[in-house]
Amino acid sequence: MRNVGIMLIACSLAGGAATVQARELRENDRYMCSWGAGTAARAQELKLSGVSLYAARQKIQTYKFNKSWMHMMAMGITEQTYDSRSRARPEVIRQSFYQDCLRYKLARK
Length: 109
Hints:
By secondary structure, the chain is mainly alpha-helical. The chain has one domain (27-108). The chain has five helices and no strands. The relative contact order is 0.16. This is Valyl-tRNA synthetase.
């Protein structure tokens, strides 16, 4: 019984620490992850519809980006998406990219 109590306390402390860490992310980090997730979802959508990587790159060239880093990041995300063998729906790609990005940002802190 005592061990169960200790385990519950340890789990609650770990859960509390995770929520505190989630709050420590800057708004810019969340924006970057959200933007990247949207880019990955669009790339997956193009891939699944049969658009070639070359055509997807050309499409990216026509976009106007708000920040200087976005163009090269979009190219990289698109290439990685096309290199992947995944046939998952774009919504799944968006969610997994966002979650992985947040985990990465938290791990760097």
